[in-house]
Amino acid sequence: MHLVIVFLLSALLPLSHSHGLDSRAWDRFLGLRPLGSQQADTKRGECPELCDCPSSFSVAMYCDGRGLTAMPSVPSHVKYLYLQNNAITAVPDSALINANSLLWLMMHHNQLTSEAIGKKAFLKLDKLERLYLQHNNLTSIPSNLPRSLRDLRVNHNKIEKVTPADLEGMDNLTVLYLHDNAVTDMSTSLKSLKSLTLLDISSNKLTKVPDALPENLYQLYLESNSIDSLPQDFLGRFTQLQYIRMSHNQLTDKGIPANTFNVTGLVELDLSFNKLERIPVVSTTLRHLYLQANVIKEFTLGSFCSIVDVTNFSKLQTLRLDGNEISREDIPTESSLCLRQASSIEV
Ligand SMILES: *[C@@H]1O[C@H](CO)[C@@H](O)[C@H](O)[C@H]1NC(C)=O
Ligand SMILES: *[C@@H]1O[C@H](CO)[C@@H](O)[C@H](O)[C@H]1NC(C)=O
Ligand SMILES: *[C@@H]1O[C@H](CO)[C@@H](O)[C@H](O)[C@H]1NC(C)=O
Ligand SMILES: *[C@@H]1O[C@H](CO)[C@@H](O)[C@H](O)[C@H]1NC(C)=O
């Protein structure tokens, strides 16, 4: 078996020599160099052995999917660092000490725990814009994250709590992925995120909508939590909000104040898989409404149109009502005037 492999490889060797592969690369290819030795002889400015630093794009360093268990040393000129899909368990305070040019740090799909991230590990990265930590074993958001972040992904971890100090002063943060964690309490942590446009906290353990949601949100994803009611004037403060997903919660009619969803600007509202018995009143400007798998017993045309005439009618295009307690016969014929743009109504 070994003989065959060596034979095949030696047949390839002349070709690869002409492409300038050195013996170190061959060792790496053959798996002869032990893992864990990657930090041993790296000098400042050099590329760590297990990583690739393409000369055509020297600001990037690719160390993804190499079986790393520890941080490689990072030269100070690197802006884009790819460390995803490894088994890195810790980021000590000293790991990124020279890496003050970093713009992107990709560390998703590793084995990081919160205890193993130094309190100052990310503190000096004052240009960092993207930090990807999804699919690790974090139980909290790392402390002292750079305030320069624009895109922070910590989804698919084991985070239980988000505190105001975790996100304070992140004026430029526009995307925050927190989904698939175990968050029960957000307190007022989102308050200062004035640039935030996309917030995904789906698949957590929230029992209420987080307080102090940022006003400039464009997409709000809260599905698969245990939310049973909404605060008064929940949507009144938003100026840009177009997409709300709240499927798979515990919402009841009683928990939704009147006219909550009768706000212009909304494009899509997903309230499927809840416990609603009535169709909530929605704005005539809404385009897509998902209400499947509730316990709706009645088709109330007034939920879509309070008056119907040439100019007053619903802009709804999609309406899903399947998996409720009504059938097509329950939809009055006058509906076609109000719902004149609905190309698909499922019951
Ligand atoms: C991370 O979590 C996974 C799954 O729960 C577990 O198998 C693994 O041992 C954990 N790793 C560490 C470093 O805690
Ligand atoms: C936010 O972005 C602006 C403009 O790009 C920049 O001047 C500012 O320093 C950034 N804020 C932080 C906290 O990094
Ligand atoms: C929804 O809001 C509009 C505009 O504010 C208002 O005219 C309409 O009566 C409201 N619909 C219902 C059913 O209250
Ligand atoms: C209905 O249309 C008229 C114009 O025909 C308009 O003045 C009025 O504000 C509309 N009412 C609603 C509730 O949109």
What would a concise description of this structure say?
The protein is low in regular secondary structure. 10% of the residues lie in helices and 11% in strands.
Helix-strand layout with pairing:
Blueprint: H1 2-18, H2 23-30, E1 60-62, E2 80-82, E3 104-106, E4 130-132, E5 151-153, H3 164-167, E6 175-177, E7 198-200, E8 219-221, E9 243-245, E10 268-270, E11 288-290, E12 318-320, H4 335-338, E13 344-346
Parallel strand pairs: 1-2, 2-3, 3-4, 4-5, 5-6, 6-7, 7-8, 8-9, 9-10, 10-11, 11-12, 12-13
Subunit structure: Binds to type I and type II collagen.
Domain LRRNT: 46-80
Keywords: Disulfide bond, Extracellular matrix, Glycoprotein, Leucine-rich repeat, Proteoglycan, Repeat, Secreted, Signal
Structure description:
The longest helix is centred in the first third of the chain and has 17 residues, at 2-18. Helices cover 10% and strands 11% of the residues. The protein has a domain at 34-151: Alpha-Beta Horseshoe (Leucine-rich repeat, LRR (right-handed beta-alpha superhelix)). It has four helices and 13 strands. It has a 13-stranded parallel sheet, with no helix packed on it. It is largely without helices or strands. Residues 1-44 have low confidence and may be disordered. The protein has helices at residues 2-18, 23-30, 164-167, 335-338, and strands at 60-62, 80-82, 104-106, 130-132, 151-153, 175-177, 198-200, 219-221, 243-245, 268-270, 288-290, 318-320, 344-346. Bound molecules: 2-acetamido-2-deoxy-beta-D-glucopyranose (NAG) (4 copies). Keywords: Disulfide bond, Extracellular matrix, Glycoprotein, Leucine-rich repeat, Proteoglycan, Repeat, Secreted, Signal. Its main location: secreted. Binds to type I and type II collagen. Residues 1-18 form the signal peptide.
